[in-house]
Automatic annotation (TrEMBL):
Molecular functions per Gene Ontology: transferase activity
Lineage top rank: taxon: Bacteria
Keywords: Glutamine amidotransferase, Transferase
Entry-linked InterPro entries: ChyE-like (IPR044992), Class_I_gatase-like (IPR029062), GATASE (IPR017926)
Transmembrane segments: none
Protein's recorded name: Glutamine amidotransferase
Organism lineage string: Bacteria, Bacillati, Actinomycetota, Actinomycetes, Mycobacteriales
Domain Glutamine amidotransferase: 66-209
One Gene Ontology cellular component annotation held by this UniProt entry: cytosol
Amino acid sequence: MFSLTDKLTRGYSWPVADAPFLLLSIRGEDEAADDEYQAMMRFTGLDEAGLRRVRLTHRPLGEVELGHWSGIILGGGPYNVSDDPETKSETQRRVEAELARLLAEVIADDFPFLGCCYGVGTVGRAVGAVVDRAHSEPVGAVTVELTDAGRDDALFAGLPDSFEAFGGHKEAASQLPRHVIRLASSPACPVQAFRVGANVYATQFHPELDVEGICTRIDVYKDHGYFAPETAESLKADARQRDVRHPTVIMSRFAQRYARPT
């Protein structure tokens, strides 16, 4: 028997009121993956029927019929496209190959897509950006600054010119091709968000992360090389002092802008 998500990714059609969104997760740890899913639903305003999840660490992606979905969201996680190929697990290599095939179709069709953190690496690699370790940022709050294009963008318009968001990443895009629109930057990272075409987005910061969310991830990933494990409590204390109410607007706007009937 196929699950509902299996059937949608294998090309079945379902008589639902609205085409659901697809969340692709690369988090192998249940606590982090489930917290991410709950946050994505909370800030998009979608329920489990409206946001179907595929955990790529647990099963192959299979065929995705774009016409069955309102849009696709890719979550972040421990993978980096710039990782030494010799260190990549078989699962990571499979996931990267599956995402590369999917993104080729997404970009060609200008299909609604939002990649959070890992999206900069995967979408960036797909469009020919330079993705490397030159602009990594520690776990915690970063000050995101909108470009002129960001201030005019459908997902970012109306946000403050400068706002706080949570991040933490080992790789980043240090250079974008001319046809890619840079939407935001931060003092240590020149590309905090970009858009390809009209509908394909990637953010380096995490628009789905609130204070409790980043505290969960600090606990889960304290031994993954993002920060010294003994600093976990101080990182959580600092996070609790931050105002991160603006980035989640991007999640709700993405869902509202692209939700469509079947």
